[in-house]
Design the sequence.
């Protein structure tokens, strides 16, 4: 599919330029991001290092006791290969302290809590370093709602939110992200052996082909099915996008005045920058 | 007559008129020192592009101190600049001024305000209602603001009105990362080249750079000769003063070898347009 094959030179320039421009114009020089050992945060680390210089990029690896030790090793590898600052903050003590109060909590609650715990650490370091928090959610995850609201979805700037996972792979290869990180199975790493594709029930490549046609090209259901996509798959993905839309919006405000924030009080975030 | 133009591929700050005016003045000073005859700034150079509710806050009247200052500077170099114009009856236009010898030579108000996809102009701005060519020291010109140029009739009218150069002020967002070159840049290059070729006229295209809320403006300002050939093209994504020498001889030669504009039948065009309007019931 031509549309999913990115011109990586151009994409790299746009995204590196984005981080440089949007960070510097706020009046800061630094960024902080969570480095999971996976490909998305690795790519963002490479983009940020090129944009601001590696000394201005601080990556934090935030493992939980059940995280795969390979993840931290890969995070270290990524940090050392692009030369950025790196630290490790374990979230085990905080998360365990909380779930001692709610021992019955299921995996979803635990996973969300971990994602939000990491968010608070990143935003605390944002204040510590005078650095903006970079987001690491790609377009595939954002459209499917495969992320935690106010957790991994929270950031000041997201360089990769408009590129699909398939394009993340391409750009990562072009920018020199370590091959081990590119080739491993994507995983939220909430428990041993978990993989995204098993949990989602389809592969990223499959769903990217569909999302590109459905979202970017605005093909109708009829066109998608005629083009060879299974109708149940099309409907399931459409429903996922629809049902997760709340995660992509600000909280809904009850309108009572003449100028309600974001409805008829409208300003760009770069207002005055 | 031959003239040297600077296409100032700048990065305005969103909503900061004073800062942008200072930036514009610096660029005017540099261009003047370099001996340029004309400097062209992008669409909404004095305000930035994604203004939304900022429109009334950044708007300037043509008799404002800021525009007066630019008029003064136009005694040394002709200036084309984009800004939000506020009228006496409180309408706000996406406008372009051509300043020459301390006076306003022409004011163009953007007619086609895109309100689709990532654009939302017609929500905030009033629509202009004319395309007029005007005389300058360097010949008869026409001005277009970005989306205007995507309407064939706009360039056509200016050419019919005698314009031999079309100046297009732009804030074009970067989109399309699939091809060999940026999608929106490729589309624009095709447009400027084809327009020049069809109308046997020069195109001076000035596009801004920088980011606003994650949207990139791609630059690539250019001077396209009446043959459709891009003579000088600015860098993609980078701030730059793109300098071009516009040769009168190239226009003359093109109009001799390809006299399509001479042969254009305005009577047929008008008659058919009137018939179409009648049949549409307009």
Sequence:
């Amino acid at each position: 599919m031509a549309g999913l094959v990115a011109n990586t030179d151009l994409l790299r320039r746009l995204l590196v330029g984005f981080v440089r421009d949007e960070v510097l114009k706020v009046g800061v020089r630094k960024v902080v991001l969570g480095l999971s050992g996976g490909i998305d945060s690795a790519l963002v680390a490479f983009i940020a290092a090129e944009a601001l210089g590696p000394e201005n990029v601080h990556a934090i690896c935030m493992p939980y006791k059940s995280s795969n030790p390979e993840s931290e090793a890969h995070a270290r590898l990524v940090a050392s290969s692009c030369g950025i600052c790196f630290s490790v903050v374990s979230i085990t003590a905080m998360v365990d302290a909380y779930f001692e109060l709610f021992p019955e909590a299921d995996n979803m609650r635990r996973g969300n809590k971990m994602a939000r715990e990491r968010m608070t650490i990143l935003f605390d370091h944002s204040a510590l370093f005078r650095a903006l928090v970079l987001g690491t959610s790609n377009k595939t995850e954002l459209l499917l709602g495969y992320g935690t609201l106010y957790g991994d979805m929270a950031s000041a700037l997201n360089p990769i939110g408009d590129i699909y996972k398939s394009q993340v792979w391409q750009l990562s290869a072009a920018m020199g992200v370590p091959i081990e990180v590119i080739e491993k199975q994507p995983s939220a790493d909430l428990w041993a052996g978990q993989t995204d594709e098993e949990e989602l029930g389809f592969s990223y490549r499959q769903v990217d082909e569909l999302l590109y046609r459905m979202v970017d090209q605005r093909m109708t259901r009829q066109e998608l099915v005629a083009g060879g996509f299974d109708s149940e798959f099309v409907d399931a993905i459409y429903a996922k996008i629809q049902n997760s839309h709340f995660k992509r919006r600000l909280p809904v405000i009850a309108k009572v005045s003449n100028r309600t924030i974001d409805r008829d009080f409208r300003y760009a975030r770069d207002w005055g920058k | 007559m031959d003239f040297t133009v600077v296409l100032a591929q700048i990065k305005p700050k969103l909503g900061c008129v004073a800062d942008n005016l200072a930036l514009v003045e610096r660029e005017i000073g540099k261009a003047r020192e370099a001996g340029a005859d004309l400097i062209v700034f992008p669409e909404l150079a004095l305000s930035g592009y994604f203004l939304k509710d900022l429109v009334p806050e950044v708007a300037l009247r043509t008799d404002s101190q800021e525009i007066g200052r630019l008029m003064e500077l136009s005694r040394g170099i002709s200036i084309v600049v984009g800004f939000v114009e506020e009228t006496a009856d409180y309408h706000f236009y996406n406008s372009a001024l051509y300043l020459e010898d301390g006076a306003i030579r022409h004011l163009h108000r953007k007619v086609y305000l895109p309100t689709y996809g990532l654009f939302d102009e017609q929500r905030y701005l009033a629509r202009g209602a004319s395309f007029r060519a005007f005389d300058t020291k360097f010949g008869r010109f026409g001005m277009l603001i970005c989306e205007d140029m995507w309407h064939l009739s706009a360039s056509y009218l200016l050419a019919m009105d005698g314009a031999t150069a079309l100046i297009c002020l732009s804030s074009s967002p970067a989109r399309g990362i699939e091809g060999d070159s940026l999608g929106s840049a490729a589309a624009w290059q095709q447009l400027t080249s084809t327009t020049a070729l069809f109308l046997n006229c020069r195109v001076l295209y000035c596009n801004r750079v920088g980011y606003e809320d994650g949207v990139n403006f791609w630059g690539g300002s250019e001077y396209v000769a009446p043959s459709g050939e891009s003579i000088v093209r600015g860098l993609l994504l980078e701030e730059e003063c793109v300098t071009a020498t516009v040769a009168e001889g190239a226009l003359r030669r093109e109009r001799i070898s390809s006299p399509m504009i001479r042969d254009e039948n305005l009577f047929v065009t008008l008659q058919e347009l009137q018939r179409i309007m009648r049949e549409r019931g307009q």
